[in-house]
Structures are given as structure tokens and as C-alpha cells.
Amino acid sequence: MSKKYRTLPGTLFDVSNYLFLSLYGLVAILPFIYIIAGSFASDAELTERAVFLIPKTFTTAAYEYIFSTNIILRSVWVSVYVTVVGTLFNLVFTVTMAYPLARRVLPGRNLILNLVIFSMLFGGGMIPTFLVVRELNLLDSLWALIIPGAISAFNLIIVKNFFQELPPELEEAARIDGCTELGLLWRIVLPLSKPVLATFALFYAVGHWNNFFSALLYINDPEKWPLQVMLRQIVMLSQAAAGDLSSMDPSFVKPPDQSIKMAVIVIGTIPILLVYPFLQKHFAKGVLIGSVKG
Amino acid sequence: MYVLLAPGLLYFIIFKYVPMWGVLLAFKDYQPFLGFFQSEWVGLEHFRVFFTNPEFDMLLVNTLLLSLYNLIFFFPAPILLALLLNEIRIALFKRTIQTLVYVPHFISMVIVASLTYVLLTTENGIVNELIYQQTGEKIDFLTSPDWFRPLIIIQTIWKECGWGTIIFLAALAGVDPEQYEAAIMDGANRWRQTWHITLPSIRSTIIILLILRMGDVLDNGFEQIYLLLNPLNRSVAEVFDTYVYMVGITQGAFSYSTAVGLFKSIVGLILVMGANWLAKRFGQSGLY
């Protein structure tokens, strides 16, 4: 960008712009800092003075309490399980479908592509999908959180486009060397697509970890609740939750108070903050801002 | 090849196309013990009941108002933020701010709602403590109907505004620096440069995003609304999606709620296609 005139209004604008953006950046992460601080504060302090960034008395009581009952740990485990298995499923389903569709000569390819694109524009909606999942006996099974979302049509098309752009010479060379179709996918295409697949794995994984809607629809059994549902129960429905939780686990007698709520929020947020640098590396490359065109 | 294709194809058929066919439920009186096929056809009865239901007006108003507020208050926010970021000359500062403002995009809606609760609650929430110290009163943000819409918009801006700048910053990066040099030669100040060079360079991006927004005015985001919805603010908070969930899943009126969902999908489809047509009219490539 070019050099600009130095004028008084210009400088004033610059100063206020830097200030405003710093403030905005702070607002984006301040809630997390406050929640982390609060989760290490004693309840007494949270009731006495709500406003602080460093607690006077540092205590891990909230976390000790959480880890002493297995309710939250169990939901963390459910979330981890669904995230890992679900992401694997997403990748396998997406790749195996995208690869044949990347072949321009495959008969029926356009029909299938159109089916996929139409499914992005129109859907049966919540209730018919719910009934399908129910008919398949997937209600209250963790598979209900994995299979109904196995492929994102949008991601499928981006991966397909990526496969299409791989140089055809590679394929020809491999064929001349006697490589089979599966061998081609496994030995040539997949190794070349590692960065792309890593990106999609990350985005799918974040989606699974954050998923609330499917669990709300399909999982009634509190023992199979992922963390997001448990979080809502503890933070938002706390009056009811105290009763629920103590009936589920006798050791959970104390109603969740402010610092425990904060600690649970921290547990739900940490994994995302941990993978965020990797996410940022990938979306900075613009991999996802691709077109949907076939 | 087709063997590889099979699992994915099966997935689309079972989880996308069977439910699409399942919308026929909207024209039947579904009885669980009779099943899908045996249940009686009732034609447009569910639609008639829905359109004459006083709740329909409430849902329509709530849905459209949220979309309208979103358009007025949220839509310009990322454009403004991108323009401000674009004026920053210190690359490290710009990158740092970008890193910070993208974070909330990846945080789940449940966490966003939880933060909202913990920060705004009248029982030791930090915001209400501050207000209390100043005014001696507390504001019932979470249950007051007056606060529901502002809260939703604030949540959306906090979560998505930073992320929304990406597409504009990408367009701004493509502007030829020589244009600015020429403008400076002609004596244009920064404001005029912004008005005559920067804004026109993202005009087509703004138009296409605006048109695409039109395609989903009926989508308010189920999770966000559901999580802030409670019996006290229901009169302004209930929208089509949450209504379908409530009557369908909670109360088990499958046929009726399918009809409501179908009404929403069809209007949505028409809007998306209309938006796409408009985008093409404006010389854009369209969505599909």
C-alpha cells in the first residue's frame, strides 16, 4: 500500500483507529480471560466483587469438584469419542465419494453431483430426518451424532474440485506402472492431498466438538450427553440441573455455582483454543474459500 | 469406482432424499401405530390450521424482524471492520488483531450462550454488578422480551463480525496500489481514497453477500435462538425453527410440524433461487 499524506485529521484518525481496533480485539477474548480467572476464584470472591481479572485467592476447588464427580468427565469422554470417530467417518466418506466424482468420464456423475447440490438447497427438514434416525434405531446411540452428518455436501464438492485439479499426468504414469484404482487413490492421490485433508479433518472435528443440535434431537439419555448439552444443563438450567445431577450421581449434591459454571465453560473452550493456531494456519491459506462450482 | 461411490451415495439417499420424500407426512395424519404408509391423507389440513393459527403471525413477525435487525446492524459491521483493518500500516498489529477477532467464530453457540448467561445474570453477573454499582438497579437481560433481539444481534456481531472480514480483506488485497498513488497525485485525502477506490473495489462482494442474505431471511439459526429462548421472552423469541422443534419433537405432532417445516423450506428455496437469479442479473457468477 502506498504512502499517504500526513495530515492532522489523518493522524487523529490513525490514533483512534488503533485504539478502537485494540479495544475490539480485546473484547473478542476478554470474556474468556474473565471466565478463566473466575473459574480459579473462590465463590465468596465471586459474590463479593464480580469485577476482577486476577482472583485474590487462587483456588482450584471448582476443578477438583468437577473431577470428583464423573458426570462432566463422562460427557467430555462422549464428546472426545464422537469427535475422533466422527471425524474419521467424515474423512472416509468424503474421500471415497469425492474421488470417483472427480473423474469427468464416470457415467452418471452429473446426475449424482446434481443430487448433492440440490440437497444443499432443499431438505426434508428436522422432523422427517428425525423420523429416519428413529426408524434406524439410532436414537440414544452415539452413532446418531456421527452418521447423519457423515458428509457435508459443501466440503465434498471442494474436495472433489481439489482432486480434479491434480495433474492428470501423475495418474497416467501410475497406470502405466500397473497401479490399480485403489492403489492410485491410496499411493498417489491421498499423499498429495494431506494438507487439504488435514484442513477438513480440523474443521469437521471442531464441528463435532461444538455440535449441540444433533445431541439435543437424538440423545435423551443423560449418560450419553456430549459436553455441549451438559454445559447447557449446568449453566443455563442450573436450578433444574442441580436436581437432575444429584439424582444421576449422589456425589453431586451441591448446586452448581458461578465458579463451577465458569470452569465447565473453560473445559468446553480449551480444545478449540488449542487447535486454533492450526485452524488459522489453514484458513489463512484460503483453502476453504473455494467455489462450489462443479 | 462405483463401489467407492456406494457408501456416500447411500448416505445421501438415506439422510437427504428419504427425508425429502418424508415431507409427504405434511399431507397425512401421522399415527405412530399406523406407520408412515397406513396413516390417512388429510391434504392441506395442517397448512390450513397453521396459517389460521394466531401463532403464525407471531412466528412470521419474529423471524422477519430478527432478519431485518441482522441486516441493518450486523451486515455492515464486517465491512466497517475490514475497512478499518485495511487502514492499518503496521502488519504485525493487523495480524494480531485478526488473530484475536477470528477466535469467537470457532466457539460453539452453547459456549456463547453460556458466556451470555454467566456475564449477564442478575445473580453476580459481572455486567449487572457494574450496572448496579452505577445505578443501584439490575437489568433482567435474559428474561426481558425487550432485550432478546439486541442480545441476539450482539452475540452475532461478537461471534461472526471478525470472521466476516476475511472475504472483504481478500477483495481489498487485490486492489492495485497504483490507484492509490494516482489518487494521491490528484490530491485525494484518505477519506476520498476510501470512497472512490476502496469501497468500489468491494462493491460487487457486498452486493453478492447482500443478495445471498436475502436467500435465508427465514433462517435465524436454531441453536442461537433456542439457547436464549425461555417462557418469559417467547413472544419475541419463538421463530419457525424453534416452533417446529417444540411442536414436533417435544409435543410429538409430527405431521403438523413437518408441514410447518415444509412451508419454511419451500419459501426458503424460492428465496434462494430468486437471490441466485438476481445475482446473475448483476453479472455475478451466482451460487450454483
Molecular shape of chain A? globular
User: CATH class of the largest domain in chain A, please?
Assistant: Mainly Alpha
Total helix count of chain B? Answer: 15
Main pleated sheet of chain B: 2 strands, antiparallel
Structure classification of chain A: mainly alpha
Q: Which class of secondary structure composition applies to the elements of chain B? A: mainly alpha
Helix content of chain A: 55-70%
Number of strands of chain A: 0
Given as residue ranges, the uncertain stretches of chain B (5+ residues, pLDDT < 50) are: none
Report the span from N to C terminus of chain A: 36 Å
Question: What is the annotated CATH architecture of chain B?
Answer: Orthogonal Bundle
How far the N terminus sits from the C terminus of chain B, by CA atoms, comes to: 26 Å
Q: Which range does the strand content of chain B fall in?
A: under 5%
Helix and strand string of chain B, N-terminal first? HEHEHHHHHHHHHHHHH
Number of domains of chain B: 1
Domain ABC transmembrane type-1 (chain A): 76-279
Keywords (chain A): Cell membrane, Membrane, Transmembrane, Transmembrane helix, Transport
InterPro entries (chain A): MetI-like, MetI-like_sf
Membrane topology (chain A): Multi-pass membrane protein
Structure overview:
Chain A has helices at residues 8-39, 43-48, 61-68, 70-101, 109-121, 126-135, 153-164, 168-176, 181-192, 194-210, 213-218, 227-235, 238-248, 258-284. In chain A, 69% of the residues lie in helices and 0% in strands. Chain A has 294 residues and is mainly alpha-helical. Chain A has 2 domains: 8-59, no CATH class; 68-284, MetI-like fold, CATH 1.10.3720. In chain A, helix 1 crosses helix 14 (258-284), helix 3 crosses helix 14 (258-284) and helix 4 crosses helix 7. Chain B is an all-alpha fold. Chain B has a single domain, classed as MetI-like fold (Orthogonal Bundle), CATH 1.10.3720. Helix content of chain B is 74%, strand content 1%. A two-stranded antiparallel sheet of chain B has the order 1-2. In chain B, helix 6 (91-102) crosses helix 9 (145-173). The longest helix of chain B has 29 residues, at 145-173. The model of chain B has no long low-confidence stretch (mean pLDDT 89). At the A-B interface, helix 1, helix 4, helix 5, helix 6 and helix 10 of A face helix 1, helix 5, helix 6, helix 7 and helix 8 of B. Chain A: The chain crosses the membrane at residues 12-37, 76-99, 111-131, 143-163, 184-206, 260-279. Chain A: It is found in: Cell membrane. Chain A: Belongs to the binding-protein-dependent transport system permease family. Chain A: It holds the Pfam family BPD_transp_1. Chain A: Keywords: Cell membrane, Membrane, Transmembrane, Transmembrane helix, Transport.
